[in-house]
Amino acid sequence: MVQFAAELRELRRAAGGPSYRDLAARAHYSVATLSSAAAGRRLPSLEVTRGYVGACGGDVERWEAFWHTTAAAVALAGDPADDAAPPPDQDDSPYPGLASFGSRHSRFFFGRERVVEQLRRRLTDQRFIALFGASGAGKSSVLDAGLSPYLRAGGQAVVTLTPGVRPLEELAVRLAGHGANTPGRLLEELQADPENLHLLLRQIVTEDPGRDEVILIVDQFEELFTLCPHREERDHFIEALLLAARAESSVCRIVLGVRADFYASCIAHVALARALDAAMVTLGPMDSEELHRAICRPAEAVGCRVEGRLLAYLIAQAKGNAGMLPLLSHALRETWRHRRGTLLTMEACRSAGFIEHALAHTAERFYEALSLPQKEAARHLFLRLVAPGEGIEYSKRRVARFELPPDPDTVTVVERAATERLITVDGQHVDLTHEALIRWWPRLGEWLTENRELLHTRHTPAARLRRSTTKPLPTMRARRQPR
Fold first, then answer.
1. Phi, psi dihedral angles at 11 (to 5 degrees)
2. How many domains does the chain contain in total?
3. 32-46, 88-102, 331-345: range with highest mean pLDDT
4. Cα–Cα distance measured from residue 434 to residue 140, given in angstroms and rounded to the nearest whole number
5. Which residues contact 87 (CB under 8 A, 6 or more apart)?
């Protein structure tokens, strides 16, 4: 176990010695969890090990074998420290809570096998498809933890992105990881002519003889309409995708993940409307059997089980309501934290606040632990992370870190909210982990009601355009450590 921790520290050193805060942003585990993994006091879980190694750019498969060998040795030796070891960190949970299932959590992803197979079949026959579903239906999980691992296992090159404020820039950055060109050079090519996306994808395939196609997955496609302030860039991005898929010598297949209430925005673009006629796959609510697998199979994967009456309660609450799935996953994650040994019980779920209140309990626990200045900083932060809709509900809004005040209170709020998985810090961006927070945290709802006029003013096309052309400021400075 000591040797395992020493090797983890060496891996981090070989990766250039990134800070644990940087590793936490890449691995989506807390700073405390990752630093504890390399401390050597106890063997970290396999999932934490995967996250740590992946964030350092290590060989995950080799480390998995190393972990199993070490775990067997620890069990054989009967390490006395194990008796005093604390219960597994909440980040070891097989349930992601509000976060979507990522590719590294695919072994815990159950219940959506039917739609994943449907996407796979459609993608075999068509070069352009779109997955539509309500907010909370699990589109990102289906694409990231269901479809993408299947495609990669078959040797396919998969490029995944979300459009953000500058969709062409996001596309250039993602493509640069699969070819010899720099992001700047690729962006120039994409801006010059939408047909160039097809040529760039052909170049990527040519440079890698082992692959004959690129699968381009554009998740949260609705960001084109909520975040991108330039109509010309939106149209250019859509045209590039359609031309790449329709070209006679096409080497790509394109998958969109779209929130259902943005269907009208999509079909307002004539060419996209025609493409969607034969491209749509819908993601509806799970039935009882699918919910049973989604609830029980992740627990079984780590040697636990779900109490019968808890299972019946959760299925009854979530059946027929696709938007309830983030709340279900969050309630399961909180129940995991309160579990009794290897059993997830109704009593543990009650302690977490049941499915209806678990999210609000978590958000309020986070908020009430803040100082008064930090609470004000939290209010400003969460209001920045929401964009008002035009005739539709509020949407989450990804914010560049340079847009946030660099004061210590804001930095602390970001760190604590990320630890509770209320927000996600991904590189240089901050985002609500899920839009369910907008609907199910009453305090945030009150803030939005009180500031509705300000939000609409802040998110007019002109205001969004000003922000998009503002030069980035330095990254938020780290909080000073007490002397």
1. -60, -45
2. 4
3. 331-345
4. 11
5. none
